[in-house]
Amino acid sequence: MTGIGVRRGIVCCCALLLMLLCLTTATSATPKISVYPSSIKASPGENFTIEIRIDPNGAEIYAVQYDLYFNPDILKAISQSQGNFLSQDGANTYLARNEINNTIGKIEYGESRIGVENGVKEAGVISSISFEVIGTGESLLKLSNVILSDPNITSIEATIVSGKVDVSAPATPATTAPSPAPSPTPTYTDITVEEAYEMYEENPAQITFLDVRTEEEYNAEHILDAVNIPLSELEERIGELDATNKIIVYSQSGKMSRDACEILAENGFHAYNLLGGLDAWRLKYPELLYKPPTPSPSPPLPTLSPTPTPTTTPSSPLLSPTPSAATASPIPATTTTPSPHTPQGWKQIPGFEVVIAVVSLALSYMRRKRRM
């Protein structure tokens, strides 16, 4: 009997551990947004299409927002088309944002369900993006600023899987003498403006923002606390940088900064290339930019008006004296007093946040109507 009791105890313990494991697995499952395919090989001149896929993993998704960064020296985004993930059950959706910026290499997308209270739980494609290959090298397809919301407009934590594109140069004709093997290219890391901001917030003493534009461009506008070493002077002045710090390099749109990162990596620096450059930073964190104050215009110097010379009209004895006209009461001049409540410029609200607000009001109305 003792042996049977021991075996039963072991079986019960195993069953309990299995239940706990299943419960933990179910609880830890989070929605996933991914680039598909995650790895692409292409050649210059080719076109290809990727999909942005979402697997709710049991969650209820009501709205989706993301940014996708790429290297504009290698890829050119042609189009971004809406998928059927949020409308898979026939519900209407509102496309809040669908923008492509090939200057900084950034794509934005935002979509929400409307007219219904429930979200979707089945996996699907939220959008498709087509690219043209215009250069060679490796480009990340990096998802950033991802927001998945449930029907209560509450953000849901998600797993993010980005992608990459490897573009090889066309093969050259074989020669009699074999070419030496190319030396490995020093590596650096591409980061989004959101990641750069988080890095600085976590440990500002260990972060250096390096502006590699010209001095004139730097003086006109730059990220707060950034140092300026133009790209043409970087190799000569590289000793001015602290090699123990993480160097976040930026240019205007993120093109020159890649060359600067390669120079820094060759010299042993921890280099990070800011995707989209200053243009992307300005869109996200305009309050963290330095701009010289605009001088106010000088008031005009006062001028002296010439004093008019009075003229005397001789009276004629042949004319009877003109009766004096009644003195007219002066008409007070009307002046406009500026209103103390003159409205200031309205604060711009991004399109996706507007959708969230509208959806919240619609859901509240539908719930109140249901209770009546």
Provide structural commentary.
It is built from 7 helices and 19 strands. The chain is of the alpha/beta class. It starts with a helix and ends with a helix. It has helices spanning 2-28, 193-202, 215-220, 234-237, 256-266, 277-284, 351-371; strands at residues 32-36, 39-42, 47-55, 63-69, 75-82, 92-101, 106-114, 124-133, 137-149, 155-156, 159-161, 163-167, 189-191, 207-211, 222-223, 227-228, 246-250, 270-274, 289-290. Mean pLDDT is 80; it is low at 22-27 and 312-350. Helix 5 (256-266) links the parallel strand 17 (246-250) and strand 18. The strands form 4 sheets. Strands 2, 4, 6, 7, 9, 10 and 12 form a 7-stranded mixed sheet that branches. It has a 5-stranded mixed sheet with strand order 5-8-3-1-11, with no helix packed on it. Strands 13-18-17-14-16 form a 5-stranded parallel sheet.
List the helices and strands and how they pair.
Blueprint lengths: L1 H27 L3 E5 L2 E4 L4 E9 L7 E7 L5 E8 L9 E10 L4 E9 L9 E10 L3 E13 L5 E2 L2 E3 L1 E5 L21 E3 L1 H10 L4 E5 L3 H6 L1 E2 L3 E2 L5 H4 L8 E5 L5 H11 L3 E5 L2 H8 L4 E2 L60 H21 L1
Parallel strand pairs: 1-11, 2-12, 13-18, 14-16, 14-17, 17-18
Antiparallel strand pairs: 1-3, 3-8, 4-7, 4-9, 5-8, 6-7, 9-10, 9-12, 15-19
Provide a count of the helices.
Answer: 7
Mean pLDDT: 80
Low-confidence runs = 22-27, 312-350
Oligomer: single chain
Radius of gyration, in Å, reads 34 Å
Beta-strand residue fraction? 25-35%
Can you write the helix and strand succession as a string?
HEEEEEEEEEEEEEHEHEEHEHEHEH
Largest sheet: 7 strands, mixed
* Structural class by sheet pairing and helices: alpha/beta
Shape: globular
**Alpha-carbon distance between the two ends:** 64 Å
User: Portion of residues in helices?
Assistant: 10-25%
How many beta-strand runs?
19
